[in-house]
C-alpha cells in the first residue's frame, strides 16, 4: 500500500486518485474553519502559491472531530476558506482523522509516522515517491515547514 492507493473525494464529491500527484511533494492537513488555528489557512495558501510550480501540492481535509469546529458541509468549508483566506488549493470532503471511523488515508498517515492527531491542523509531509516523511503538530506554523519542503523539492 502507498499514498497513491487512496482516492479521497473533493468537496464537490469528485474522487481524486492521489496517484495523480505522483512526483509531487504533498502537504496533507486536517482543517477546521472555526478553530483558533484557522488563520493557518493564510500561510498554507502562501506555501501553495510559493511552491506549486516547484512540485508541492497542499491538500486540505475538513474535520469536525475536535471541538465541533467544522460544523458545516465540505462545500461550506471550501467556500469559507476561499472567501476568507483566498484558498485555491484543493479542499476535500469532511472526514474523521482518528478513532474507529478514521478515514483510511489518515489511518495510513498516522501508521506511517507513528503520530497521533491531537487537534485540527495536523500536517503530514509526503515526498514525490509517496513516502510519508514527517508529521507536524497542529501548532507548527505552515511557514516554519519551508526548510523541510525545500529539502523535498531540491
UniProtKB/TrEMBL annotation:
Record key words, sorted: Oxidoreductase, Peroxidase
Highest taxon above the source species: Bacteria
MF-aspect GO terms: peroxidase activity
Keyword Oxidoreductase appears in the UniProt entry: yes
Keyword DNA repair: no
Family the UniProt entry places it in: Belongs to the glutathione peroxidase family.
Protein name per Swiss-Prot or TrEMBL: Glutathione peroxidase
UniProt organism field: Cohnella suwonensis
Amino acid at each position: 500500500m502507498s499514498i497513491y492507493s487512496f482516492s479521497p473525494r473533493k468537496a464537490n464529491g469528485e474522487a481524486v486518485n492521489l496517484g495523480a500527484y505522483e512526483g509531487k511533494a504533498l502537504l496533507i492537513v486536517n482543517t477546521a474553519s472555526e478553530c483558533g488555528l484557522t488563520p493557518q489557512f493564510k500561510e498554507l495558501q502562501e506555501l501553495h502559491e510559493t511552491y506549486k510550480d516547484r512540485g508541492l501540492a497542499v491538500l486540505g481535509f475538513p474535520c469536525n472531530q475536535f471541538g465541533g469546529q467544522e460544523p458545516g458541509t465540505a462545500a461550506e468549508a471550501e467556500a469559507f476558506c476561499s472567501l476568507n483566506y483566498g484558498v485555491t488549493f484543493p479542499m476535500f470532503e469532511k472526514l474523521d482523522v482518528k478513532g474507529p471511523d478514521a478515514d483510511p488515508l489518515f489511518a495510513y498517515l498516522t501508521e506511517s509516522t507513528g503520530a497521533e492527531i491531537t487537534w485540527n491542523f495536523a500536517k503530514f509531509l509526503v515526498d514525490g515517491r509517496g513516502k510519508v516523511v514527517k508529521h507536524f503538530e497542529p501548532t507548527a506554523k505552515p511557514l516554519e515547514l519551508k526548510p523541510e519542503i525545500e529539502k523535498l523539492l531540491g
